[in-house]
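A note from the maintainers: we've had questions about how concatenated examples are separated. There is no special marker in the raw files; a new sequence line simply starts the next protein. For clarity in this README we add a label.
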Amino acid sequence: MAASKGRRRFGNVRRLPSGRFQARYIGPDGLERKAPHTFDTERQAGKWLTVVESEIIKGEWAAPESGEIKLEVYGRKWIAERKLQPRSRENYEDLFRLHICPHLGALALGAIKPQTIRTWRRTLLDGGTTEPQAVKAYSLLRAILNTAVKEDELIRQNPCRIPGYDRYHTPERPVATVAQVLALAERMPARFSALVVVAAFSGLRWGELAALRRSDVDLAAGTVRVPRKLAALRNRMEFGPPKSEASNRTVTLPAAARTAITEHLAEYVGEEPDAMVFTGDKGAVLRSGNFRRAVGWAAALRATGMPAGFHFHDLRHTGNNLAAATGASTRDLMHRMGHASMRAALIYQHANSERDREIADGMDRRIAKQAKRATASAKGTAKRPARETGSDGTAGATGTPMARKIEDA
C-alpha cells in the first residue's frame, strides 16, 4: 500500500527540541533503533534512512550493537565452540593468546578495519614474531571474523582481506636418499632402527607411527592400518582419530619396510593385539623430544651426512618422492600420504632431472625398438625397384637412413 502523503514508507524523522532531526526505524528483528547521531536537516535524516532500508533489502543489514562485541570475548568463544582436534585447539589458543589478543582483543568487532590489520601485522613482525607465525595468526583471525560476517552477521565485511598476508615462502625441505635413510637406521639404537625405515618408506607421520598397535600391522598382506594418532598436548599424551578422514587409511609397505617391521615385532613387541609397536626403552609411548635425545639425533645426522636441520618428519618425503617416481597418480599419492587435497600430492609430482632421465631412457628403448622394425622391413623390400609411397603420396618411413642410425645408436 502506498505511503500517505507526508509520511515515510520506511522509518520516521522527528524534530527535536534542539532543532536537530532524529531518524528512527524498526529493524528486521522487530526492535526500534535510532541513528547513532542527529542531523542538521530533515533531508539528511531521510537519506540516512534510505541507506538503512537498502541494506535491509539487500540482506546486508546488521544490528548496530552487534559490532560492539569485543574481539577477545568473541574469539575465545569461537575457539571453544569450534570442532577441533585437541592439538589444533591448543595451537589456536596459543596463537590467539600470544599474537592476537594483546593487540586487538580490546577492540569491538566493528572497529577493526583493514588499516588496523596492516598496523597489527607490522607490529608483530617488528616485535620479533616470525613471518610464519604472523601468517598463522592472520589466518586464524580471518577465520574468526568470517564467522562473524557469514554466520553470526555481526559485521558487514571481514577486514582480513589483504592480498598476500595469508602466505609466506617455505623453503623446500631436504629429501634423504635411500642410502642415507638406511645409514641413519644403522646409527639408531636397535629398537628404533625399524622406526626410521618404516617412516621413510611408508609415508606415515610421527603421530601415526607412535600410535600403531600390533593389530594394525598385517604381515601377510604387507600393510599397516592408520586408525588413530598420538598427539603431544601441553600436559598429556592423547590418542585420537587421524588428522583427517583421508588420513584414516591402509598403506602397503615396500619389502625393505616389511622386513624391518617384521623383525621389530618379533624382537620388541608383545603378542597382545593392542601392544604398541614403537615405544621407548621402558615401554612408554614415544615423545618426539625424548626420542631425539635417546638416539642422539643430531650426532646421527652428522655421521650419515644428512643435511643440517633435517627433521624426523622429513623422512616422509623420501617415500613420497619414491612413490611419485613410480608414476603413481595424484589420487594414489593422496591416499598413500593421507591427504584430502591435491596440493601436497602435486608437489611430489613436479618434474625432476632423475625422473626426466628415466622417461627419456624409456623413450630411447621404444624408439630403438621401432627403428629396428623399420630396418628389418627395409631389408625385405631392398630388391624392389622403387620405394613404396604412403597413401598421401609421400615416401614410406621404413628403412630410412635415420631409422638405421637410431638402431645403431
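[label: protein 2]
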Amino acid sequence: MRQSFIAKNPSVLVFLSTLALFTLLVTVFAEGPGAGLIPTSFVKTLGKTLCLCLIAIAMDLIWGYTGILSLGHFAFFGLGGYMIGMWLMYERTRLIVTEALAQGDIPPTEAEVVDGIGSQIFGVVGSSEFPMVWMFADSLVLQLMLVVLVPGILAAIFGWLAFRSRVTGVYLSILTQAMTLALALYLFQNDSGLRGNNGLSGLQNLPGVEAPQAEVSMWFFWASALALGLGYLLAAWVVSGKFGSVIRGIRDNEARVRFLGYPVETFKLAVFTLTACIAAIAGALYYPQAGIINPAEMAPVASIYLAVWVAIGGRGRLYGAVIGAAFVSLVSTWFTGGQAPDIPLGFYTIKWVDWWQVILGLSFVLVTLFAPKGIGGLFDLLQRKDRT
C-alpha cells in the first residue's frame, strides 16, 4: 500500500502544526485583534522573520539540496519587493493627487492626474515622467504577476547562460554575486526608473484601506505565515520524490549523475528558477512590512548573510533553514535594536550594535568547523536517543 506524502514526510506535518500554533498565539496576544500583549512593531518583526524563513527555504533548496552556493538570491528577493512596491506607491500617490486636485472647481483630467502622480513620485530625482518599467504600476493584478515573472525570467536567462557553460563551484558563486552587484549598482542610478538611492517608501500604507496599522500588520503576518507554510510544503514535495533524489545526486556527484543520462543543466535551471520565484514572493511580503525598499537592500552582503543563516540552521534540512533564519533574525533584532544592554569593562564598553556582525561571523566559522549540521543536527541526536 502506497504511503501518502505526509506519512512519508512526518516533519512536514510537525512544521505546519507548529506554524499554525505560532500564528494562533500571535493572533491571540497581538495588539490589533488580540489581547494587546504583543506590540504592532514586534508583530511586523515576526512577519518579516517569516518572510526571511521563506527565502531561507529557497536558499536551502539551491544550496543545501542541489549544491549550488548562490550569492544572488537576495536580488530576486529585492525585485519582488520592487514589483509590489511600485503598485503600492503609485496607488497611494494617485489617491493623494486625486483628492488634492478635486479641491478645484473643475474636475481634473486623467492627464493631469497622471502628471501629478509622476511629479510626486519622481520629483525627488528631478523628473515627472513615468519610465517604461512603471507601465503596469496602476494594475495590482499585473504587478502581482510581475512579482514572479521578472525574477523568474532573470533567473532563467542567467541560469541558462551559466549552466550551459558548465560553470560550477566558487566560479558560479562569484557570478551570482556579480549579478547582484550589477543590479544593485544599476538601481542606485536615478535614471533606473525606480528612484535611485531613494528607493520606494511608504509601502506600509495600503491604498484605500482605513484600518489602523495594528490590523494591517496582522494581515501581512497572516499572509507571511500562509506563504511560509505553502512554500515549505512545496519544497518538501520537490525534495521527497525522484526530482529530489536527482538534485541530491547532483550535489554529491554531478559527473556520475550526468553519466547516468540525466540532463543536469535542466535540473539545475529548474531549481534555480523555482527558488528565485520563491525568494521574490518572500520579498513582496517583506517590504510592505518594512515600509521601504532601496538598492542597498540588494547588496551582495545580504545574500552572504542568507547563506550564513542556512549554515547555522543546518543546510540540507528545510526545517534547519527555517530555524537558522528565525534564530539569527530575532537575535539580530535584539542585539541591534538597543535591547541588549551594553557591558562596561572600565577600559572599554562592549556595544552589541557594533559587535553583532563579528558574533555572527564567528558563529558561522564555529558551526562550519564543529557543527556542520547546524542547529538542525540537534534533532538527529534526539532521534538517535529515542531509537536507543
